[in-house]
Specification:
This protein is an all-alpha fold and 399 residues long. It folds into two domains: 177 residues, Outer membrane efflux proteins (OEP), CATH 1.20.1600.10; 156 residues, Outer membrane efflux proteins (OEP) (Up-down Bundle). Helix content is 83%, strand content 2%. The chain is built from nine helices and two strands; from the N terminus they run αβααααβαααα. A two-stranded parallel sheet has the order 1-2. The longest helix has 72 residues. The radius of gyration is 42 Å and the shape is elongated. The protein starts with a helix and ends in a 6-residue tail after the last helix. The relative contact order is 0.09.
Length: 399
C-alpha cells in the first residue's frame, strides 16, 4: 500500500513540474513576442516620422519675395545688360577723349599752320570730348529707361492681379446667383432654363478667372526677366494699383525742361557746334568760296535745321503727352462713376428678381455689366499710371 502511495506521489510531482515548465516557457514566449511587436511598432513610427519630415522638406512652398518699386529699380539696375554695356561705352569714350587731349597737347600752337593740323588739334579733340559727354548721358538715360521699363512691367503685374480679383468676384456672384435660382426652382418659382443659364454663367466666369490667372503669371515672368531674376520667382508686390492724381505742369515749363535735358536735343546741338567749328577752320585756312568751304557751309545749315526740327518735335511731343494724361484722367473719373452705377443696377436687379418683379435675365445682364465696369476701371487706372509716367521720361529720353 505504501509503495502505491509513493508511486502516485512521484507521478503527481512529475506532472506538476511539467505543467510549471510549460507555463514558464509560454510566458517567456509571450514576453518575447510582445517585445518584438513593440520594436516593430517603434520602427514603424520612426519610419513614418522620417517620411513625414522628408515630405515636409520636399513640399516646402516657394519663397515669396516682397518687392517695392524702389527695390525693383535697384535689382534691374544691378542686373541689366544694356546698362552694363552703356557703362563700358562710357569708359571707352573717356579713354578716347583722354587720348585726343594727349594728341592735341603734343601739337604746339606755333606748328598749327594747316587745316589738317588744326582739325587734329581742335576738331578731333572737341569731337571726342562731346562723345564722352554723350556717352555719360547715354548711361544716365539708360538708367532712366530701365526704371521706366521696370515701372511699366510692375504696373502690368498690379493690373493683372487686380483683374484676377475682379474675375474672382464675378465667380462669387455667379455662385450666389446659381444658389438663388436653385432655391427658387425647388420652391417652384423658377424654371429649369434659368438654372441652366446660371450654371453656364458660372462656368464662363470660372473660365475667365483661369485666363486672368494665366495673364498674371505671364506678367510676373516678364517682370522677373526685366529684373534679372529667375522667371519662376514668386513676387509679392508691395505697391498697389490706385488712382493717384497729379497736378500737371504747364506746356511751357515742360517744354523748357525737355529742350534743356533731352539727349536727342543735345546731340543735335553738338552736331551744330561741330559743323560750325569745321566751317570756321576751313574759312580760316582757305577762301570762303572754295569747294570745301561751300560744302562745310551746307553741312552747317543742315545742322541748324536739325536743331530746329528737333525743337519742334519735342514741343509737339510735350503737348501730345499732356493731352494723353488729361484724357486718361477723365477716363478714370468716368469709369469710376460707371462702376458705381453698375453696382447699384446689379443690386436692384437681384432684389427685383427675389420679389418676383424682375427676371433672371436682368440679373445676369447686370452681373455682366458690373464685371465689365470693374475691369474697365482697373484698366483706366493702369492707363493713367502708365501715361503719367511719360511726363518723367519725356524730359530726358528720346523716342
Amino acid at each position: 500500500m505504501s509503495r502505491k502511495l509513493l508511486a502516485l506521489s512521484v507521478i503527481v510531482l512529475l506532472l506538476f513540474g511539467s505543467i510549471s515548465s510549460s507555463g514558464a516557457e509560454t510566458t517567456d514566449t509571450a514576453q518575447q513576442t510582445a517585445g518584438e511587436t513593440q520594436k516593430a511598432a517603434d520602427a514603424a513610427q520612426e519610419t513614418a516620422s522620417q517620411n513625414s519630415t522628408d515630405s515636409s522638406v520636399k513640399e516646402k512652398p516657394a519663397e515669396v519675395k516682397s518687392l517695392t518699386m524702389e527695390e525693383a529699380f535697384e535689382l534691374a539696375i544691378k542686373n541689366n545688360i544694356d546698362l552694363k554695356k552703356a557703362q563700358l561705352d562710357y569708359d571707352s569714350a573717356v579713354i578716347d577723349a583722354r587720348q585726343a587731349r594727349y594728341n592735341a597737347g603734343e601739337i604746339d600752337e606755333d606748328s598749327v599752320n594747316s587745316l589738317q593740323t588744326a582739325q587734329t588739334k581742335y576738331v578731333s579733340t572737341k569731337q571726342k570730348v562731346l562723345a564722352e559727354d554723350i556717352a555719360k548721358q547715354t548711361y544716365e538715360i539708360t538708367i532712366e529707361q530701365t526704371k521706366n521699363l521696370v515701372e511699366e512691367n510692375y504696373y502690368d503685374v498690379l493690373m493683372a492681379d487686380n483683374l484676377v480679383q475682379v474675375k474672382e468676384a464675378s465667380v462669387k456672384r455667379a455662385q450666389e446667383q446659381l444658389a438663388l435660382v436653385q432655391k427658387k426652382f425647388k420652391a417652384g418659382s423658377a424654371i429649369k432654363t434659368e438654372v441652366n443659364k446660371a450654371e453656364i454663367s458660372l462656368a464662363s466666369a470660372k473660365s475667365d478667372l483661369t485666363n486672368s490667372q494665366r495673364d498674371l503669371k505671364n506678367a510676373q515672368v516678364v517682370l522677373n526677366k526685366t529684373l534679372g531674376l529667375d522667371v519662376n520667382t514668386n513676387l509679392q508686390l508691395a505697391q498697389v494699383l490706385k488712382y493717384d492724381r497729379i497736378t500737371l505742369p504747364t506746356p511751357e515749363d515742360l517744354t523748357k525742361q525737355a529742350l534743356e535735358t533731352r539727349l536727342d536735343m543735345k546731340r543735335a546741338r553738338n552736331s551744330e557746334s561741330m559743323a560750325q567749328m569745321n566751317y570756321d577752320l576751313v574759312v580760316a585756312y582757305q577762301a570762303p568760296n572754295t569747294f570745301s568751304a561751300k560744302k562745310q557751309k551746307i553741312e552747317l545749315e543742315k545742322a541748324k535745321l536739325d536743331v530746329l526740327q528737333q525743337e519742334q518735335n519735342i514741343k509737339a511731343e510735350v503737348i501730345s503727352t499732356l493731352f494723353q494724361v488729361q484724357k486718361a484722367d477723365e477716363v478714370v473719373q468716368l469709369s469710376a462713376k460707371s462702376l458705381e452705377q453698375a453696382k447699384e443696377n446689379h443690386s436692384l436687379a437681384e432684389r427685383r428678381y427675389e420679389i418676383r418683379v424682375g427676371t433672371f435675365a436682368d440679373v445676369l445682364s447686370a452681373a455682366v455689366d458690373l464685371a465689365d465696369a470693374e475691369a474697365k476701371y482697373v484698366q483706366s487706372v493702369y492707363n493713367y499710371s502708365i501715361v503719367k509716367n511719360k511726363l518723367k521720361t519725356i524730359v530726358v529720353v528720346s523716342k
